[in-house]
Amino acid sequence: MTGANLVVAEGLVFDIHRWITLHPGGQKILQRVIGTDITNDFFYDPTVKTMIQNNFKDYNDYDVEKSSISVLTDDTYKENRQSFIKSKPYSVANAVDRINAIAFKNRRVARHRHSKFATSKLASMVVSRISNLEDNSFQPQQFNEKELQQPSPYIFRRYILSNIEVVTRSNAETLVKKLTFQIIHPDDILPKFLPGDYIEIMSYVNNHVIIRPYTPLQGPSENSFCILVKIYKDGIMTQHLDKQLRNFEVKVRGPFDIADRRTYLSAPSPILDSITRPSSANSHTRTLSRLHMDYIKRPSGIDNNQMNNILGKRSGILLNKEREDLCWDCLFMVCGGTGITPMLQLIQYHIEKANSNFELYLLAAFDKIEDLICPKYLDYLRQKLKEGQGKLEVKYILSKPPPTWRGDSGSIDEVLLYDWIRENYSTPPPAIPPKISNYGGSNFTSNLTHGIQNMQNMNAHNYLNPNNYNVNNNPIQEVSKNNENSKHEQQNNVPLTPKNRPAPIQIPPHNNSIDRQYNQTSPSYSSSPYSSSPLNNSPAILLMNERHNYMSLFARDNSKQVKLVVCGSNHFNRSIRKNLEKLVFPIDEKALFIE
Ligand SMILES: Cc1cc2nc3c(=O)[nH]c(=O)nc-3n(C[C@H](O)[C@H](O)[C@H](O)COP(=O)(O)OP(=O)(O)OC[C@H]3O[C@@H](n4cnc5c(N)ncnc54)[C@H](O)[C@@H]3O)c2cc1C
């Protein structure tokens, strides 16, 4: 119904267009709530709630067709509006707006109580009842009462913007801001957010409705949440959000499940396009729900009730459904730019919910050091975790590093990926020797020889000794002198860039020899597909063998629940996938890409 000004309250839809110009609280306050749920604006007072419910004795049987308040067509709407405007100019509401504008400068218009008259006025504006938007035929799980009390994700709700903070350096070319939102009314229920959830923000910009998805993060209190927004200079929504001041209201719906988005993107259908769904990708239709079921399957042997209490109808695609707390034993996270937001969701979730050990490794790519998002927060979490049962290691890579940067630079290639995984995850014995790969420089061959000697002398105990691995503990390496790269620089006086690293070794695509290797029951270092080659003494082949052996063991190692999650732009994800393929990383079983 175009032209109507609809709001939702207590499961009923109201068209408030006739009331806007008369509203004693001013018209702006009503224009702001159009399209949202105003239940708690009206019904927060229990006596008013009872009154309106008494007015709607036949609440559940309300029949719009038979009601005296018929659904307005565009024409009747226009006619009514014209005659209404002629007879009653904007006087009351306009005057109040002017007063409000002075009294509440830079603040949202005050919340006010509604009189009996206003409540009965609202009652006269019902145009419809909300039907159950959920797909009734799709009920794979039973949900408890708490879950059912969760607000519907399909209806926009208003939240107060309570804090704005820049989380990059202030001289970054494109700032990222953390916006914190909190509930308006004490009765409002903030949905429970999980890793893999996204919300949608709606606003009116130049008379157009704009809706964009964002990744919700835990807020400072249980009634608040945050989003990190990259402020694009020509971005419609981000420019709009950037102009909002503290105490302003923002319209938000959700949470939605990223798995639905993935399903839709991989199975687009013209039919689905015509069905109401969250903007651009999501759908909660029957067809999609069936596809969604693939993700939503709960494994046997786990307390499904507990899992349902946490997940509800969501797939938990980023979570580990083999553990009751849904946490991973070991999680590798690779992200570019604001792709860090789902990783922050995962980190926050593990810190809050894990009831046994976990290891989180974040590899975050940015252009410049100024662009790093929340580095202090991540460092704080890393330190905090040292006291507990978890571990968080952060590694940054910059494509345009400053001269003082001691960390990794360039783009993420298979060498970096391999070294990063390899140094943080040791497969159980029979294992492979300590890492012999080394980025370039004059030490390369001598390190390799040293590595081969180690290989000959080692025993299983050595492989498991964490001291054998090179773990970089400082997440911001701009000033670090204690890592492998800075040692290299000190020795060679040359900063490490992709150019002076040895060229990445191209591993042949998946083939029979690799399959054979994966299928062996008793893996051993000498079982490499290249070991019988006459070139097997060449450093390149040795490195290639090392990587293949490691990945072979990694693929078969079921001692831990391991996942690698990648989140960035389309281009970023494609590039990481290609590099993982070169490493023969078990992508299908252990990697997940989100955009
Ligand atoms: C599931 C999901 C979760 C998301 N979570 C977040 C989040 O937590 N934080 C966040 O900042 N964004 C997030 N986004 C992206 C967000 O929805 C918007 O696309 C983004 O804020 C830009 O919106 P806009 O209206 O300002 O830009 P638009 O007006 O739509 O685009 C205008 C210009 O902005 C720039 N731009 C827009 N999007 C991108 C992009 N992805 N990469 C590079 N340039 C771009 C381009 O210059 C473009 O020409 C998420 C997207 C999805 C699908």
TrEMBL record:
Signal peptide: none
Biased composition (Polar residues): 509-521
Protein name: Cytochrome-b5 reductase
Residue ranges, compositional bias (Low complexity): 522-533
Keyword terms, alphabetized: FAD, Flavoprotein, Oxidoreductase
One Gene Ontology term of the molecular function aspect: FAD binding
InterPro entries linked: CBR-like, Cbr1-like_FAD-bd_dom, Cyt_B5-like_heme/steroid-bd, Cyt_B5-like_heme/steroid_sf, FAD-bd_FR_type, FNR_nucleotide-bd, OxRdtase_FAD/NAD-bd, Riboflavin_synthase-like_b-brl
Disordered as annotated region, ranges: 467-533
